[in-house]
Design goal:
Radius of gyration: 24 Å
Shape: globular
Largest sheet: 22 strands, antiparallel, barrel
Oligomer: single chain
Length: 663
């Protein structure tokens, strides 16, 4: 169907080709202020206000803008996490599967223009369901400030800033790629000004993957519609509706007793959850509706006020052996849904060298979930304050605090950051915070075990050097967690069939990590890389290898009178060992341990192998309007897996195009 859709679009676009030229709407995150709005001109002189970042521009942080994203090699939004310091994607081998992501080794608060995306049941979000073409830029918050955002005070937080442009003519965008296993992706975006103060954006995405191994088919639709009304010189109103509908067959990986017995031939391999009589023995359907009404205003001079009203309906149908009736597999027919009504507000008061930002949020969640066994309501209320000051334009300091209340239970936190510019090229960052965390509602604590409220103490420091051709950042973090959540399977004999978490135990844990992120251009040679090192610790609760690296070496050139910008070279990926785990897909939780006679033991005392891969990558940008990507994946045709036992794709070719057309 997507090939037909692409063909129709291509034919209809032929008359428009002579009018192709660049539409530059990307905003560099580093040039925007803390949730500040950027005013641009429009034809009717009304203010076109834009939502900005959550962190002050003086804070040393990592960001990606749209131009950089277009030139990176990625399939879906989750791949972009791998380019961030301390970011990692546990790839399950076949695209469309729910790949677990982690930052700083733990769960992440994912936000869209400051509004939390995470599933309110399990505190996670599958980025396969977030349209990458909507993104203008991405910011990674320092680990010391991540707890200020979201319901569960996660230490890591990422904010996706959505594309928003004061266009003068209708604009069409296309992103399309095709890959092995009949994998196809198409995104069609359309922007137009309906009349002078009203703008419309529509994004439609379809993605499909045919079975590579038995029971691995996946696909779905994502649709996003956004209306923006320029009410006055000081106020804009946004209405955003997002709909997601996907179905994923969960094959559970290759059925093998050890990594040495994994079968990579898809015609011979036996999967954990096979087909029977043409029916999938295990699959998952997701349906989500997300409606947001936002008011962005500068009523108080240039101090931005942002208010978001939002409604979320999310339903996940988790099925096992519903139609197959296999004797050796338990029947699971679970519908897990929630409805969320929320309001969040942010006000910044800028007093020259001193600024205060107040963020507040209230949510009412109603759960109808077989996972919980009963209908439950849960309310969240939080208020956070950030005070910032600058001294001699060289020193920027901030202190911050947050109060969170969940159904009468209170959680607090505070911290501070310090940024110092040693020179125009060298900047230094250091921060520390301490905070308490609530436990997600779907996590059952182990009975009879002393429970204590999760409490984290985090430290981070970074030093960054940037010049015309070099951008390098070295970062270190450490985290002490009193009350880290360790998921446990309670019946070992079921682990190869059910993979369900029975209980969670609270433990004390520590984490440390070192990251080097670099972008160095020497003449026409570009070196890019993101290297993480996170040593093991006892009863590790995250799924993160001891070290991993993603990057490449590329040749850059501008050809044909600046009409073609070329980036060609090799992608490299190296992933160290990590401990064996399985995944509870219903809770979206990885598990390494089981409970036996009140004692915790490893599911399997096994580590994955060291992985090194190389891809040929070519990206060509034509007239700043069209980007063509060609990737020869896994050129040495290695047999390997990242997450056990989910074999990665073999040698293959992926071709894609991203095209912006001004009609």
């Amino acid at each position: 169907m997507t090939r037909f859709f692409f063909l129709i679009f291509f034919i209809l676009s032929i008359p428009l080709f002579p009018n192709i030229h660049g539409v530059k709407d990307s905003i560099d995150v580093s040039k925007k202020n803390n949730i500040d709005s950027l005013k641009t001109s429009s034809s009717d002189s009304l203010a076109f206000l834009k939502k900005g970042t959550l962190t002050n521009s003086n804070i040393l942080l990592y960001s990606l803008n749209k131009n950089e994203i277009n030139k990176r090699d990625y399939r879906f939004t989750g791949n972009l996490i791998s380019y961030m310091p301390f970011g990692f994607l546990n790839d399950l081998g076949t695209n469309g599967q729910p790949h677990p992501i982690s930052l700083y080794g733990n769960s992440v608060s994912l936000m869209s223009d400051g509004v939390l995306l995470n599933n309110r049941l399990n505190n996670t979000f599958d980025l396969i369901n977030f349209q990458s073409e909507r993104i203008d830029s991405i910011e990674l918050l320092p680990i010391t400030k991540g707890f200020l955002y979201g319901n569960y005070n996660n230490s890591a937080a990422v904010n996706f800033i959505i594309r928003d442009t004061a266009i003068t003519a209708p604009t069409t965008r296309l992103r399309y790629y095709q890959a092995p296993e009949d994998e196809e992706f198409v995104n069609l975006s359309f922007d137009t000004k309906i009349f002078n103060p009203l703008y419309l954006t529509v994004d439609i995405t379809n993605h499909s993957v045919e079975p590579r191994y038995e029971n691995t088919q996946a696909g779905g639709w994502k649709v996003n519609t956004r209306l923006k009304y320029l009410l006055s010189e000081s106020t804009n109103i946004f209405l955003n509706y997002n709909s997601v509908s996907t179905e994923t067959q969960l094959f559970g990986g290759i059925n093998a007793s050890s990594k040495d017995l994994v079968e990579y031939d898809n015609t011979l391999a036996e999967v954990v959850y096979p087909f029977t009589n043409s029916f999938s023995s295990r699959f998952m359907k997701t349906k989500q509706d997300f409606l947001t009404l936002s008011i962005l205003s500068k009523l108080l001079s240039d101090n931005p006020t942002n208010i978001d009203f939002y409604y979320i309906f999310n339903k996940t149908e988790f099925r096992q052996n519903e139609r197959t009736n296999l004797d050796y597999i338990d029947n699971i027919i679970h519908d897990n849904s929630f409805k969320t009504l929320g309001i969040s507000a942010s006000q910044k008061i800028d007093l020259n060298k001193f600024a205060i930002t107040i963020n507040s949020n209230f949510e009412q969640n109603n759960f109808t979930a077989d996972l919980l066994g009963e209908n439950i309501s849960q309310n969240f209320f939080s208020v956070a304050g950030i005070a910032e000051t600058e001294i001699l334009d060289k020193l920027h300091s901030s202190i911050f605090t947050k109060y969170l209340n969940t159904d009468g239970n209170s959680y607090g936190g505070f911290g501070g950051n310090l940024n110092f510019s040693i020179s125009n090229e060298v900047k230094f960052f250091v921060g520390y915070s301490i905070y308490e965390k609530p436990i997600p509602i779907s996590f059952n604590l182990e009975p009879g075990i002393l429970y204590f409220t999760p409490k984290e103490k985090v430290f981070e420091s970074s030093i960054k050097y940037s010049s015309k051709n070099i951008s390098t950042m070295l970062s270190f973090f450490s985290k002490e967690n009193e009350g880290d959540l360790l998921p446990l399977i309670t019946n070992l004999s079921d682990t190869t069939i059910v993979n369900e978490v029975g209980y969670f135990r609270t433990i004390s844990s520590t984490q440390k990590g070192l990251n080097l992120n670099f972008d160095v251009q020497l003449w026409k040679i570009l070196l890019q890389g993101n290297a993480n090192y996170m040593p093991e610790f006892e009863e590790k609760t995250s799924i993160y290898p001891e070290y991993n690296f993603i990057g490449g070496i590329y040749y850059l050139d501008t050809l044909f009178n600046n009409n073609l910008k070329l980036k060609a070279g090799f992608n490299f990926q190296s992933i160290g060992q990590q401990q064996y785990f399985v995944i509870d897909f219903e809770r979206n939780v990885p598990v390494k341990y089981f409970l036996q006679d009140s004692q915790v033991a490893l599911l399997k005392n096994e580590y994955t192998d060291l992985v090194n891969t190389v891809d040929l990558f070519i990206s060509a940008t034509f007239q700043d309007a069209a980007v063509v990507n060609f990737v020869f994946e896994n050129i040495f045709d290695q047999e390997y897996f990242i997450a056990p036992y989910y074999p990665k794709q073999g040698q293959g070719i992926r071709f894609g195009i991203t095209w912006e057309i001004l009609n």
